[in-house]
Amino acid sequence: VAAPATAGEVRVLANRGYVVGYSDTLANPLWAAYRVTDLARIPTPPARPEKFEVDRRTAARVSPETYSGSGYDRGHLAPNYAIATRHGAAAQRETFLMSNITPQKHALNAGLWKDLEAKIATSYPARYGEVWVFVGPVFGASPTRLRGAVAVPEAFFKIIVDEQDGRLRTLAFLVPQDAPTDADPARYLTTIAEIQRRTGLDFLGEIEDEAERQIEAQRAGRVW
């Protein structure tokens, strides 16, 4: 995944269950990528970790307390449940590194966003075998910052990729911070091209150019 110039140098941090591109300039992850496979039986995940942790691989070294009293949740990009059930307790703990966390309004974090995460972790792999996911924040030109450090996104994107018989199909969502708890996700369907325009990222650069343009320009007519 390429990165926007405004984010400064981007650190690519590989974890057991996901990869994240981190911007010390914005004190935020710019994207996370992970894969969810089907299982004959989804195991009961380990207990949710009790605390978030500073990621000392970053220069920003954001602490969990930066979010305290801010009005924003510590929003995961790579989700706890999907990673825990596929990769185990050590991988689950890595989702609680602050390099995987971005400021998210509670109504979104506990509503539409949580519902999409659950569908990706359970329904989609059961129906399609496996899916790949790209997820991240969208920043305005001059974002506000928590305690002068952590930039606050104005929206979030989520891209789901399913490959069947050598053909790719995608779902792309662009969801504003203020999305209502019970919002219909179909309202926020968009194209990968629009997400790339808003973020400066490039997701499918390894695909042949014409095929890439066609896939990125497609907007799904419905949520799978």
Residue runs with pLDDT of under 50 for 5 or more positions = none
In the sheet with the most strands, the strands line up as 1-2-3-6-9-10
Counting DSSP E segments of at least 2 residues, the number of strands comes to 10
> Percentage of helical residues?
10-25%
Strand content: 25-35%
- From the spread of the alpha carbons, the general shape counts as globular
Q: Whole-number radius of gyration?
A: 17 Å
Oligomer: single chain
**What is the makeup of the main sheet?**
6 strands, antiparallel
Mean pLDDT: 95
Task: Give me the strand/helix succession.
Answer: EEEEHHEHHEEEEEHH
Q: SS-based structural class?
A: alpha+beta
Model description:
- The protein is of the alpha+beta class and 224 residues long.
- It is 23% helix and 27% strand.
- Strands 1-2-3-6-9-10 form a six-stranded antiparallel sheet, sandwiched between helices.
- The protein is globular.
- The chain starts with 9 loop residues before the first strand and ends in a 7-residue tail after the last helix.
- The model has no long low-confidence stretch (mean pLDDT 95).
Task: Provide tags for this entry.
six-stranded antiparallel β-sheet, 10 strands, alpha+beta, two-stranded antiparallel sheet, 224 residues, globular
